[in-house]
Write a structure and sequence with these properties.
It comes from Micromonospora luteifusca. With 491 residues, the protein is α/β, with parallel strands linked by helices. The chain contains 17 helices and 14 strands.
């Protein structure tokens, strides 16, 4: 282990950062004015946790303009005598509630961290209690899972344009400002409102984009940043899909290998790939139903999506084997069951995925190019065929460019290296992404490898937990090439 020395950031460094364009464009963002503190009150569902809001600009380039309330929650450090400060958690997938994580799931962090830090999180702008993006449910339902031809490609373009207009009309100005660059500026306002001179942050999955962007914009305000299951925000359409297809297929391979060796798998001793091929063929014919939801027909894409989701945690694998086994044993209906009834046209629903389309530019010119992506994904993932990432192309099709927070290679110049906690067999944030991000960070990053499975590693491995805790508490950076052994799913 190496202990990092803190060093002051001088005017020369500040000027160099300005020259390379790393400081925020808005003077208000670069030099935030004193803002209101958070009025913490006991949370409604658990009085041991505290909830509050922070008033922030909708558009950070117009700090005196329209505002919204960012919802937050915290649990104060259990040992005030050893308190280090506040640890801010960056929620994972788009739509994940940080408030809910604190109120109902703060135990994801070790007892040692909970003794030393107030655990704080928030609902990112446009989600949950932070002015959620709202859209017409019927327009959301029109988005296809996969596009079949040029006519459907054109219809999807038109439908997405209608959806964007509807979401903007229902949500207001915030709809156009839910990108992660805006989120990073929110995060700095949270840091200031908490009274923290520097930020201590743990981001998971999509929350790693927030940590990366914060470190770019505010390098001298970083105390420690953990990126668990990091995303690579430097790649275009083809590389994004290819890496996701390979990552998903690797997760399928790992599940099959576990079933072959473990009696905890209900399909142990059987040909799992043959069973899967049969289920996929039934899905292609429209005669595969979900045994957990009577009458619900599973499309090939939905079969792959639900299966892939169960790869996230190894404790889900026995249940996945049971689910696949029950579908395999069930007789196929002679005709396709009726489709689900549609909802009323005036129903609305939150749309947290809006942030993705403002963070990623994944253009596709026409159906011919789209079909080529789908065929290539099937070659890279011959079992799953349809990696869930294909839906990102559909849902963001036609998004005006440039997007608010476009892909780019990282430019981070922090005093303390960012810590990447990466899993070799992560089903969603591939290990190749972590290695690429580590290369972009250079000496401003450190890669800690978990040799096991699952989307994330802090909660899966005591070895990873100890290394991350040492970094967050004492800024001890793991040695180059540091690795933690896999934890057997059957143990």
């Amino acid at each position: 282990m190496l202990r990092v020395r803190k060093s002051a950031v001088g005017w020369a460094v500040a000027l160099a950062l300005t020259a390379t364009g790393l400081t925020p464009a808005s003077p208000a963002a670069a030099r935030p004015q004193p803002g209101p503190t958070i009025d913490w009150r006991p949370c409604a569902t658990d009085s041991d946790a505290e909830c509050g809001t922070l008033s922030l600009p909708v558009d950070w380039n117009q700090p005196r303009g329209e505002r919204f309330d960012l919802a937050l929650a915290r649990r104060v450090a259990t040992d005030p005598a050893t308190r280090k400060g506040a640890l801010v958690f960056g929620p994972g997938r788009p739509g994940d509630s940080g408030v809910d994580r604190v109120v109902n799931g703060s135990s994801r962090f070790s007892a040692d961290l909970r003794r030393r830090f107030d655990i704080v999180s928030f609902d990112p702008r446009g989600t949950g209690g932070s002015h959620p993006v709202i859209c017409a449910r019927d327009l959301l339902a029109r988005q296809p899972q996969l596009i079949a031809d040029q006519a459907q490609f054109d219809a999807t373009l038109a439908g997405n344009a209608l959806l964007r207009a509807d979401c903007r009309a229902r949500t207001g100005a915030l709809y156009d400002h839910v990108d992660t660059t805006s989120g990073a500026r929110d995060l700095d306002a949270v840091r200031a409102a908490l009274g923290e001179r520097q930020l201590t942050f743990h981001g998971s999955s999509y929350g790693t984009l927030l940590g990366q962007r914060y470190a770019e914009l505010y390098p001298n305000r970083v105390r420690a940043v953990v990126l668990e299951a990091a995303m690579d925000h430097s790649i275009g359409t083809r590389a994004f899909l290819d890496s996701q297809a390979v990552t998903a297929e690797n997760a399928f391979d790992q599940f099959v290998a576990w079933c072959d060796r473990s009696t905890a798998c209900g399909l142990n001793g059987r040909d799992v790939r043959a069973i899967w091929a049969g289920l996929r063929a039934r899905a292609e014919r429209g005669t595969l139903t979900d045994p957990d939801r009577a009458g619900v027909v599973l499309t090939p894409f939905e079969l792959a999506r639900l299966t892939h989701k169960k790869f996230y945690d190894t404790w889900r694998w026995p249940g996945l084997a049971d689910w696949l086994g029950r579908m395999d044993a069930a007789a196929s209906p002679t005709t396709a069951p009726p489709a689900d009834a549609t909802t009323t046209a005036d129903a609305v629903a939150p749309y947290p995925f809006a942030v993705f389309c403002q963070d990623w530019s994944l253009p596709v010119r026409d159906y011919r190019e789209y079909a080529a992506h789908v065929r290539r994904a099937a070659l890279l993932a011959p079992d799953l065929r349809y990696p869930p990432a294909l839906f990102a192309l559909v849902t963001c099709l036609g998004t005006p460019t440039p997007v608010a927070n476009p892909q780019h290679r990282l430019r981070v110049r922090t005093d303390v290296p960012l810590l990447l906690a990466a899993t070799v067999h992560d089903p969603a944030s591939g290990y190749d992404w972590a290695r690429t991000v580590a290369r972009q960070l250079g000496r401003h990053g450190a890669l800690l490898t978990y040799q096991g499975w699952g989307h994330g590693s802090y909660s899966s491995s005591r070895c990873v937990e100890r290394a991350v805790d040492a970094y967050l508490i004492d800024q001890v950076v793991p040695a180059r090439g540091a690795s933690c052994p896999a934890v057997d799913p059957d143990v």
